[in-house]
Amino acid sequence: WKEHRLEFPKLAILCAYYLSIPASSASSEREFSKAGQTINERRTSLKPET
């Protein structure tokens, strides 16, 4: 993308944002933590009626 950034400036910005590797794992750890808070015993048990 570096070679074509002048030809496709908006696409180059999007690619830099979405295809870059984060320097730390803090944001992914935060998302996994949120998911753990969402899924609990009550939510994981489905009854045949549902």
Write a brief structural summary:
The protein is an all-alpha fold. Helices cover 54% and strands 0% of the residues. The protein contains three helices and no strands.
Share of residues in strands: under 5%
Q: Nearest-angstrom radius of gyration? A: 20 Å
Structural class: mainly alpha
Q: How many DSSP-defined strands?
A: 0
Shape: elongated
Considering DSSP H and I runs of 4 or more, what fraction of the residues is helical?
40-55%
Query: Span from first to last CA?
Result: 49 Å
Low-confidence stretches: none
For the report, how would you describe the main beta sheet? Answer: none
Order of helices and strands: HHH
In DSSP terms (H or I, runs of 4 or more residues), the helix count works out at 3
What integer is the average pLDDT? 72
Question: Could you describe the 3D structure shown?
Answer:
0% of the residues are buried. The mean pLDDT is 72. The protein has a domain at 9-40. The protein is 54% helix and 0% strand. It is an all-alpha fold and 50 residues long. The longest helix has 13 residues, at 26-38. Residues 24-50 are annotated as: Disordered. Residues 1-50 form the HAT C-terminal dimerisation domain. Residues 40-50 have a biased composition (Basic and acidic residues). GO terms for molecular function: protein dimerization activity. This is HAT C-terminal dimerisation domain-containing protein.
